[in-house]
Amino acid sequence: MVEPPMNTSRRKMIQHVVSLFAQEGGFHVVEKPVLETLTEMFQATLFEFGRSTRMFTELAGRVEPTVGDVTMALIDMGFKVDPRGLRAYSKRMTRPMISAPQTLPLPKVPTILSAGKKRALPPYIPDYFPPMPDPHAYIRTPTHKQPITDYAACREKTSQQKRDLEKSLSKFFARTSSCYYLFPENKSLFPLISPKPASYLDPLIPQDQIFEEEQTLAPLNFVRKEKPMEQVLKIDDDEDGDDVLATTQFTTTTSWELIDNPFLKPTVPRMTPKGQKNK
Amino acid sequence: MHQVIHLEGISLQRKNIIGLVELTLVARRPRLRIVKISCKQCKIYKVTINKTETEFSYYDPAIEITETEHPNNQYSLDQFAVHHRNAVLECDPDAGGGEIVIRIPPELSHIIDEGRRFTVEMEYSLEHPQSGMHFFVPDDPSGQERAHMFTTRHENSSRLWFPCIDSYSEVCTWDLEFKVEENLVAISCGDLVETVQDTGRMKTYHYFVSTPTAAPNIGLAVGPFEIYVDPNMHEVVHFCLPGLMNLLRWTSRFTHEIFEYYEDLLATRFPYSSFKTVYVHEASEEMTSYSSMCILDTNLLHTSAIIDQTYITRRFTALSLAEQFYSCYISMQHTSDAWLSKGISNYLCGLYLKKFFGNNEYRHWIHSELQEVIKFEQQYGGVILDPSLLDKSSTSGTTGIGNLCSNSNNSLQQAPRPSHVSAEGGDGDFYFSLVNPQTISPLYLKIMAKKAHLTIRMLEHRIGSQLLLQVLNKQLSLASIYISQTNESGNRIVSAQPINPNPPGTQSGQTAPGANPTSPMLISTASFTRAIFTVTGKDMTVFMDQWVRQGGHVRFHMSFIFNRKRNTVELELKQECLQQLGVRKYVGPLTVALQELDGTFKHVLQIEGTQAKADIVCHSKSRRQKKKKIPLCTGEEVDMDLSSMDADSPVLWIRLDPEMTLIRAVDTRQPDFQWQYQLRHERDVTAQVEAIGALEAYPNQQSRMALTDLIENEQAFYKVRCEACSCLTKIANLMVSSWTGPPAMLGIFRKLFGSFSCPQIVKQNDFSNLQHYFLLKTIPVAMASLRNVHGICPSEVHKFLIDLFKYNDNSRNRFSDNYYRAALVASLGNTVTPVVSLLQPGSDITAESLSSDTRIIMEEISRCLNLEKMLQCYKFTVTVECLKALRKLQKFGHLPNHVELFKDYACYGQFHDVRLSALDAIVDYTKTDGKLEDVEYLLDIIENDPNPRMRHDLSRLIVHCLSEKSADRRSKTKLPFHNKAIALRIWKKMNYDLAIDARLRCDLVDLYYTLFGTRKPVCLLDESQQHLADEITSRRKSPLTVREDVDFKPEVVEEVGEAELPNIVSAGVLSSKHESMASDNSAELPDALDSSLPTSFEPEMFRTEKEIEIESSEREVKAKFRSDTKSVESKDGEVEAGESSSHKKHSHHSHHHSKAKKKKEKKKKHKHKHKHKHSHEHKKKVKEETLSSASSGSNSPAQT
């Protein structure tokens, strides 16, 4: 039987009461099913008692029961109500005591993040209105922590980050490629990644840092020559013009021409003229 | 007259060329019957003269240098040098020699007799060239498109790729045609006339060289080059391999400025109508100049972010252009005139650098070149710029007491020394012949170029820079007039004079110099002297005799006393050590600059003898005019704190020859406060550098302050500041017990580079201030060498360095910090000191036994090294330094001593610098712990490496490493290199296999000399031969082993004196000489005077090794018994065994023997020298046997 956990404690309490009654009645041992049955009966009685009490209360148009209601309910359930006897019974010497059940501490209601100071109500608002909420609820307040402005700590942190990054990168690489182990018995200590052959480009085009090359005259292809528009009219000193294969692209201010240099000239066909421009 | 080269097929994949050359020649004299043409390694198919097929024969005497005769004396360099020289001279094109001999058919002889032109046509091919031409063809398929080839050159060696008259003096015009695949570019000398499309996806580049050019100046490069026409000068084209265009653009952006500078300077147009620079991979030298073309190493390229390389690259570019004027355009008459072209082009380059980098840089450079030349000369002997007269000088005068190193060449016939200097030790005799560059050690050639530069600079001082430039201008303009005249005369083909490549019957040495004395295209010592005379009216013959035709440098010792009464400085100048190697006497003017309180005063003294005294009257009355500014030589006036100087003397400091007008070493003796004043206030960087060097000897508080102030002085030249750093390290180490305050330079560093808010953290990198950049790199390295009282690096410094690593942040820098990071790694390496091991010697170093410091160091090094695998920096500078540091850790016992680590980095395919660094480590390892396999491994690389540059560099590396002082006392003869197999292998290689590669052959000769000396190596002697006493004594004189037996020497001399009367005299001479020579470097060990003999390669070798030496000598004595018993058996009881003194007698006897023999051979030359040497050798033998018996118990030294 699956009971909601709320009931278990109540049921335990009732069971406790039942067994106390039984003890008072002179029993020493009780069988579990019996106890269960008694508990069930007791609970049912209590439930019925409470229910009819409320009925009587409500019948009388009240919300809170009075002694009369309780009495009526008891009578309705067929109990003979003897107030004097009841009082005596409740004050008898052998009355067993049940310790108050332990109550769990109430789960704490998380306090709402309070940022800033709550403002007092403005004078035109009567004081029975609720207090003003936290300011962040209605104005923008910085919620992040104040950044560290200490130079040393910053440097420390960036360098640490960088090193961690580098370390894990090289660790990863060391796992995935062949290594030289300084101490073959301890492979985790200082594995040195074996070098791979370098082409002629590798040493000259470093990868460790990227520098943006200043792109001065970026369109200046190596075979082209900058020629500002206004100078186009003049005859340039070493431009013959006639045998130059001009690939003129008129931009707003400059034009580009192939420099007159034998290395840039197209090949001459050996017999039949069908030259093709070599790059 | 004219030569056509037509290369039909150039196949990169098959590494071969097929070609045709056509030489147009004119006979210089009638009845010419044979023509000799230089050609090596090419296969000639057909030779025709005027279309008539002719017979020809091919003989290259250089293929096998020494034949297998002389069974006794084989394998000695003495012999080798003679044969090598003869072999090279036999084919010397200057003398009309050549490997190919063509008979002129009788039916054509009338043409020759009539003096008409005739054409020699030769078809040839060349496959897998070993030298002269290099094919770079990567194995991987993706690399195929990067394949390229180019010519290389070691002196005149064009004959390696086409038949020609391979002489600098035979200039002619050229037609060059190269047929290449369509996607390739062929770059060669002269003007590109046209590019013709051919069938089969080929095209032909046609060049024409209109300016007469010598064959060695013809070059070629073929490859998939990218073309970059210089935007400022369209005649200039740069070529680089694919992918490097950005670098090329940056590197070449200033080329036009150099052109303009030279044209302005020389008032001449650039001699060629075009100029091409080609950057190639695996170049054999950084730069090789051909006429109107230059082949450079691709590793000279750099981007704008690289600082250090810029200086190097710019120097090479400037030099390459200067060589266009002097080397290519103005060629030399004879190879002995090479100093002129080298000197003048270096001089021009120097002038450009002076303008570009500033006077300080220039002077510093000159100073360092001077020191280099002096160092070389003291180690190996005087460098003779123009050896052409050596042949003619008589051999009689060569006594050369001091030249103990020189007995090698006594057997050489030419005895290279003019008689008038014979009494001095100025010229070294070398173990190679100086007459032809093909036989000269590459190191010597390098130093010669430097010395030539210094000599031209001296000339500048003598005749004035304007006039010198006028001389050069005159030469250039005469040449251009000459060319235009010959062109005008309707003769497109310039015929200078009927030059006969082969005067029949004349042999080498006779006709060589001055064969064509009037051609203005050629320069020679004589014609240059004449030109100076015509322009300036000054006769420089004496100068040429003194400095050009004679080797060596001058050496002064200066001391002085101030005479208070007379207010004079009594100066004493001595020229000591005249017997020492490379030093010679000087007579003439010498400037002394005296800095007094009232200013700088220069006095010119006339030096007439070895001792000179001069009283110089001081201008200033002894001071007391206080608070007066002191004028300096620059005219500035400065305040000085004069409290530390001598109260009576007005002299602040004295300098000798401040302008470096002589090639001299100066040893100035002045008190430390004068050096400090000189350091603080002298404006000349060379003076500051000298002061820094001198202050090392004065570790005191004042020196410390002076150095610290200099380092902090922003006005000072950065290189001086950097040098001051390392000096301060030395001083701090010497003062370690009295040092106060934080470690040296820590404060300076924090002041300069600490960040604003917390000085202990270094600033983010900003290298825009280059002075600071260089200091930033230098200070950590210098600090890392600091040691505390226990001789280890202070923990403070350790932490400082680790912090530098940690806080290095280059994110906001415009420049790359790769050199800085490399310097940091280097400084980590510097902190390493020999481990104080608690372990049993011999037990393995395990991961657990690492000290915490080592762990931290390893952490950094492994991080840097691993990171480089993924994100490599420019030229792998960090890897290079990491390898060095790793080797250091191994060497000092912090890491397991394994060489395999480096072998990964040393194999072909790695970057050149990385390989060199790894090989350096391997050589170092081999030297101390190596086995035979390690040596074999190194030799394998020397012999077979695909990159010729590496073969050369590695041999140089080994030579360098072996000739420097070794730290451990392991006997030199026990080096794994001293092995029969190794000796034979090197010998075989240099004797038989390297006819093609003259440079490597000379490298190996150097190596062989360094290992075994000039005699037959001990390890090659048979046991049977050893019974010959004279053999034993004369068998070897290795510079490496000569020192072993220092302690015996005086006794030997004594014994000799007793035994033979004439020798007493020589012994006396000997010892007195030693005293004088020992004075400068052996003060601590007065009883070992002989050990300062100039034969040594290690001038300071025994400075710290006194005890060890004694120890070893004791061992020797013990072992002596054994060796003596052996020799007794063999020598008929001449020597009594069993006494410790017997070995002395033995040595005497043996010396005696050899001397007698020598006398016969050499006609009483070098008496003392021999005596001395033999005793040396004898000792060596003793040592040898000691060791062998100790190690193997065998009595055969060959087993060591």
Q: What this model shows, in words?
A:
- The complex is a heterodimer of chains A (about 280) and B (about 1200).
- Chain A contains 7 helices and 5 strands, in the order αααααββαβαββ.
- In chain A, helix 1 crosses helix 2 and helix 2 crosses helix 3.
- Chain A is mainly α and about 280 residues long.
- Chain B is built from 34 helices and 32 strands.
- Chains A and B meet through helix 5, strand 2, helix 6 and strand 5 of A and strand 13, strand 16, helix 3, helix 21 and helix 23 of B.
- Strand 5 (about 270) of chain A pairs parallel with strand 13 (about 190-200) of chain B.
Describe the secondary structure blueprint for this structure.
The complex is a heterodimer of chains A (279) and B (1200).
Chain A: H1 5-24, H2 32-59, H3 67-76, H4 83-90, H5 151-176, E1 179-181, E2 191-193, H6 201-204, E3 224-228, H7 229-232, E4 254-258, E5 268-269
Antiparallel strand pairs in A: 1-2, 3-4
Helix pairs in contact in A: 1-2, 2-3
Chain B: E1 2-11, E2 16-26, E3 34-37, E4 43-49, E5 52-53, E6 56-58, H1 77-90, E7 100-103, H2 109-113, E8 117-127, E9 133-136, E10 148-151, E11 171-181, E12 185-188, E13 191-198, E14 202-214, E15 220-223, E16 226-229, E17 236-240, H3 245-251, H4 255-266, E18 275-280, E19 287-290, E20 293-297, H5 308-325, E21 331-332, H6 338-357, H7 359-380, H8 407-410, H9 442-463, H10 465-488, E22 522-523, H11 525-536, H12 541-548, E23 553-563, E24 568-574, E25 583-584, E26 588-596, E27 599-607, E28 611-617, E29 630-631, E30 637-638, E31 651-656, E32 664-668, H13 672-681, H14 685-695, H15 701-712, H16 718-734, H17 746-753, H18 770-784, H19 795-807, H20 818-831, H21 852-870, H22 877-891, H23 900-906, H24 912-929, H25 932-944, H26 948-963, H27 980-993, H28 998-1012, H29 1029-1034, H30 1049-1059, H31 1061-1078, H32 1106-1130, H33 1142-1162, H34 1167-1191
Parallel strand pairs in B: 1-11, 17-18, 18-20, 21-22, 23-25, 23-32
Antiparallel strand pairs in B: 1-2, 2-8, 3-7, 4-5, 4-8, 6-7, 9-10, 10-15, 11-14, 12-15, 13-14, 16-17, 19-20, 23-24, 24-28, 26-27, 26-31, 29-30
Helix pairs in contact in B: 4-5, 5-6, 6-7, 6-9, 7-9, 9-10, 10-11, 13-14, 13-15, 14-16, 15-16, 16-18, 17-18, 18-20, 19-20, 20-22, 21-22, 22-24, 23-24, 24-26, 25-26, 26-28, 27-28, 30-31, 30-33, 31-34, 32-34, 33-34
